Amino acid sequence: MLAEGPPAVEAVLLWGGAITVVAGVATVLWRLGRGMAQTWQRLDQFIEDWYGEEARPGVPARPGVLERVAGMELRLGRMEHELHPNAGGSLRDAVDEANRRLTHLCPDPDTADQRPPAGS
Question: How confident is the model at residue 111 (pLDDT cuts 50, 70, 90)?
Answer without folding.
Answer: low
